[in-house]
Amino acid sequence: xxxxxxxxxxxxxxxxxxxxxxxxxxxxxxxxxxxxxxxxxxxxxxxxxxxxxxxxxxxxxxxxxxxxxxxxxxxxxxxxxxxxxxxxxxxxxxxxxxxxxxxxxxxxxxxxxxxxxx
Length: 118
Description:
0% strand
């Protein structure tokens, strides 16, 4: 029996099974705050609370949606540039440069916020 336990402990734990349960009460204002946070991040209550307790960065769905949209717009601008054979090259180049700068700034802001939490 001891050999079996040692073998299981030696294996890398790829999936953490959550077997412990914690329940607690909140005031109406505390619950409202969590509900607001849930609408922004799109997680379950348990996932949000777990991440907050473990000080894991919770990504905003809005930030991720903005980054996705910026990438999509950049692709559309590239398509316009290719389809017009560069007729608007100075305009599309500037627009792509602006989109890239904004996406980079948003990514850096998220990275800085993540480092502050750690």
